[in-house]
Amino acid sequence: MAAARRVADTLFKAPKVKHYTLAFLLRDNNGTKEVLLGMKKRGFGAGKWNGFGGKVEPTDATVSDAAAREMNEEALVTVLGSDMEEKGTLVFTFTGKPEVMHVHVFQVRSYSGVPSESDEMKPQWFTYDAIPYASMWADDKYWLPSLLEGKNIVGQFDFDADETKFYDHVLDVTDA
Ligand SMILES: Nc1nc2c([nH]c(=O)n2[C@H]2C[C@H](O)[C@@H](COP(=O)(O)OP(=O)(O)OP(=O)(O)O)O2)c(=O)[nH]1
């Protein structure tokens, strides 16, 4: 559990920690497993495929509710906070930025509605063998395959200031 210890120390020492959610909608499409990703249209991570999420707001009752709210806003589906399954924690640091990002990672299988394009995201279903890692954050190929296998993850990725590559990382993967 080396990653969990490192994450705890990073969060303890950080001058400022901001909480974010990141959720992956999963479905079984006639026996083929698929995950919903969205092309981020603006802001932080624009031009990359990702799960759905954003900042936890003071008005969110729980982190799970924040994850559901973000998914509802960005993919225009209806998901309940109580259906969000917590899958782990990712911490991101960026050279020169005192603020540390604490990302709460979820998966969810229960939803209603049809995922549709919002101001922020253009959603698309991907089979697990066609995830567009080359157009995702550099760290995603390290942990997303484990997540899709149903594992839990705890990791930290320390990025250069330009956000394109990381120079250090730790990752624990455990059976759910
Ligand atoms: N897959 C992946 N997701 C990441 C990485 N880094 C990172 O911040 N994210 C996620 C966490 C959040 O879901 C999202 C960043 O949140 P955001 O800036 O879109 O937050 P928001 O929607 O509240 O922002 P806004 O309304 O102010 O534009 O990106 C990463 O390296 N990989």
Automatic annotation (TrEMBL):
It comes from Achlya hypogyna. PROSITE patterns: NUDIX. It catalyses: O(6)-methyl-dGTP + H2O = O(6)-methyl-dGMP + diphosphate + H(+); 8-oxo-dATP + H2O = 8-oxo-dAMP + diphosphate + H(+); 8-oxo-dGTP + H2O = 8-oxo-dGMP + diphosphate + H(+); 2-oxo-dATP + H2O = 2-oxo-dAMP + diphosphate + H(+). Keywords: Hydrolase, Magnesium, Metal-binding. It comes from the Eukaryota. One of its GO terms (cellular component) is cytoplasm. Residues 16-152 form the Nudix hydrolase domain. One of its GO terms (biological process) is DNA protection. This is Oxidized purine nucleoside triphosphate hydrolase. Monomer. Belongs to the Nudix hydrolase family. One of its GO terms (molecular function) is 8-oxo-7,8-dihydroguanosine triphosphate pyrophosphatase activity. Its cofactor is Mg(2+). It is an enzyme of class 3 (hydrolase). It holds the Pfam family NUDIX. Its EC number is 3.6.1.56. The lineage of its organism: Eukaryota, Sar, Stramenopiles, Oomycota, Saprolegniomycetes. Oxidized purine nucleoside triphosphate hydrolase which is a prominent sanitizer of the oxidized nucleotide pool. Catalyzes the hydrolysis of 2-oxo-dATP (2-hydroxy-dATP) into 2-oxo-dAMP. Also has a significant hydrolase activity toward 2-oxo-ATP, 8-oxo-dGTP and 8-oxo-dATP. Through the hydrolysis of oxidized purine nucleoside triphosphates, prevents their incorporation into DNA and the subsequent transversions A:T to C:G and G:C to T:A. Also catalyzes the hydrolysis of methylated purine nucleoside triphosphate preventing their integration into DNA.
